[in-house]
Design brief:
The protein is α+β, with helices and mostly antiparallel strands. The strands form six sheets. Strands 8-7-9-15-10 form a five-stranded antiparallel beta sheet. It has a four-stranded antiparallel beta sheet with strand order 1-2-6-3, with helices on one face. It has a two-stranded antiparallel sheet with strand order 4-5. Helix 1 packs antiparallel against helix 11, helix 4 packs across helix 5 and helix 9 packs antiparallel against helix 11. It has a single domain, classed as Chorismate synthase AroC (Chorismate synthase, AroC fold, 4-Layer Sandwich), CATH 3.60.150.10. The chain is built from twelve helices and 17 strands. The structure holds ligand EPS.
């Protein structure tokens, strides 16, 4: 369940997604998907495009009277900018020869899919690659993520994210925070940087403004957290069933993401085992016993299986490759050295990617959850889940 694919070009008529199997009886509203789309559009550092777009979903199948039917769900988000690109991006043959009047894009941007894309697909115009490699596609993934979040919410899962680094400005990771978490994450939601530390957020904003003035771009680090996770999702039995690996693959597929770490992450390399592994405790309660930990350096996984602790993941986003002050490149037409194409671009898309990351995590967890507790309807899944919870409590 919850397999999906996306389609659509950045300046084509729309981006869309089809989710293949969703259990029946899940309550879905356009507004809940729109809320996530709006969150994704709000981050600081975006370029002119975000002033044009006003992302709203159209649900075209799989939902009746607000409830899922178990049939594929089609989600469409129109590209408002299509108005300005109808001829260049025409689906019909180019009778007016607009394309021949427009120059092909022939100078690849270092760091972008441009050069490997044209070589692989035998294109002379880089636009044929960049339209699909564009991060516009993440609007569709965010919409899918909203459906998956709604599913997971029924079982008490809560996915949060915040920006912990922009350029060299760093703020505390979740494990180092001693704030009240509710008010911390309220501040994150009210911050255009998605940073819960106001002073650091101001510095991040100044940094983005500086790189904008310099015609450059800047990346950062996002932390994604999941609370309320059941013990036992994923498996140690097969390499491709390890859930931390599945999450890594999905998160690494977000445009411009170049690395991931869980829990204490790369810091583990410099610590002895005794300072890394989370000691196990047991508490006898009225409802049965409970294993627990006082630390969470594992980030919620042992052996590729969720261990009942919150999931903690951090992903690094490289600076956007489209630069106002472009880098050295080579023209595909004449092979002469020159500077890369200048396109309208974002300076920093880290806060926006933080929302995309939440959605991508939701899609993988919804799938893992139904792999374990699967059924055709919400009722059947709920029964399976509750039976397992009873078993765990009585273990
Ligand atoms: C993108 C380039 C920019 C971004 C775009 C991703 O678009 P444009 O080329 O139209 O200025 O704004 O992101 C989105 C449209 C979006 O919805 O996130 C790129 O090259 O990846």
């Amino acid at each position: 369940m919850f397999d999906y694919f996306t389609a659509g070009e950045s300046h084509g008529p729309a981006v869309l997604a089809i989710i293949k199997d969703v259990p029946s009886g899940l309550s879905i509203r356009s507004e809940m998907i729109n809320k996530e789309l709006i969150r994704r559009q709000q981050g600081y550092g975006r370029g002119g495009r975000m002033e044009i777009e006003e992302d709203r979903v159209q649900i075209k199948s799989g939902v009746r009277h607000g409830l899922t039917l178990g049939s594929p769900i089609t989600l469409i988000i129109k590209n408002k900018d299509w108005q300005n690109w109808q001829e260049i991006m025409s689906i019909e043959p180019d009778k007016k020869k607009v394309q021949s009047q427009q120059k092909n894009m022939t100078i690849p941007r270092p760091g972008h899919a441009d050069l490997p894309g044209v070589l692989k697909y035998n294109f002379k115009d880089i636009r044929n690659v960049l339209e699909r490699s564009s991060a516009r596609e993440t609007a569709a993934r965010t919409a899918v993520g909203a459906v998956c979040k709604q599913f997971l919410k029924q079982f008490g899962y809560d996915i949060k994210s915040h920006v912990v680094q922009i350029g060299d400005v760093k703020t505390a990771n979740y494990s180092d925070l001693d704030n009240d978490m509710d008010s911390y994450f309220k501040r994150v939601e009210n911050s255009q940087l998605r940073c819960g530390d106001q002073k650091k957020g101001k510095k991040m904003r100044e940094l983005i403004d500086r790189w904008r003035t310099n015609g450059d771009s800047v990346g950062g680090v996002i932390e994604i957290l999941v609370f309320g996770v059941t013990v036992g999702l994923g498996s140690h039995v097969h390499w491709d069933e390890k859930l931390d690996a599945k999450l890594s693959r999905a998160l690494m597929s977000i445009q411009a993401i170049k690395g991931i770490e869980f829990g204490a992450g790369f810091k583990m390399a410099s610590l002895p085992g005794s300072k890394v592994h989370d000691k196990i405790y047991y508490q006898k309660e009225k409802t049965g016993g409970r294993f627990y930990r006082k630390t969470n350096r594992a980030g919620g996984f042992e052996g590729g299986i969720t261990n009942g602790q919150p999931l903690i993941m951090r992903i690094v986003m490289k600076p956007i490759p489209t630069l106002k002050n472009p880098l050295h490149s080579v023209d595909l037409d004449n092979k002469k050295e020159c500077f890369a194409s200048k396109e309208r671009a974002d300076v920093c898309a880290v806060p926006a990617a933080s929302i995309v990351g939440e959605g991508v995590v939701a899609s993988i967890l919804a799938k893992a959850f139904t792999d374990k507790f699967g059924g055709d309807s919400m009722k059947e899944i709920t029964n399976n889940y509750e039976g397992y919870q009873r078993y765990i409590q009585n273990y």
